[in-house]
Amino acid sequence: MNRQNTMAEIQKTVDKVLNKKPPRKKTQKEIFVLEKEKKTKPNKKSKTKLSDRSEKALKAHSKHHSKKHIDKMRKEMLAGASFSSAHKKANEAVGK
Questions:
Q1: What distance in Å separates the CA atoms of residue 30 and residue 27, rounded to the nearest whole number?
Q2: Domain total for the chain?
Q3: Confidence category of residue 43, pLDDT binned at 50, 70, 90
Q4: Residue 61 in contact with residue 70, Cβ under 8 Å?
């Protein structure tokens, strides 16, 4: 008997004594959701101020879009989103 088998048997015995259930396997859907959450979490810290370049881009962008749209974009960018992703989110939420 090798050591790994012995350790597995010991663990099973301990689980039986403590009346523990073995951990449940995650479904494919749960795994997919967890992976998606990892990808969508912003890895940047919230900013307090946009860069001059971002402000300049928003100023030019504001000629073609509403104040609500620009405000939503600014909020998203301060939270760490890029210009294009902020634009997509603002279009979905507010429109042009």
A1: 5
A2: 1
A3: low
A4: yes
On the question of pLDDT at 96 being above 70, the answer is yes
Per-residue tokens: 59: 């100023």
* pLDDT for position 81: 85
Is 89 among the domain residues?
yes
**Which two three-digit tokens encode residue 89?**
């989110």
Q: In this structure, is residue 73 part of a structural domain?
A: yes
Question: Which amino acid would we find at residue 25?
Answer: K
As a whole number of angstroms, the distance between CA 94 and CA 67 comes to 10
Which domain range does residue 86 map to?
52-93
User: What is the distance between the alpha carbons of residues 9 and 91, in angstroms, rounded to a whole number?
Assistant: 58
* Beta-carbon-side half-sphere exposure of residue 1 (alpha carbons within 13 Å): 7
Q: What single letter denotes the amino acid at residue 50?
A: L
Is residue 10 one of the residues assigned to a domain?
no
Residues ≥6 apart with Cβ < 8 Å to 84: none
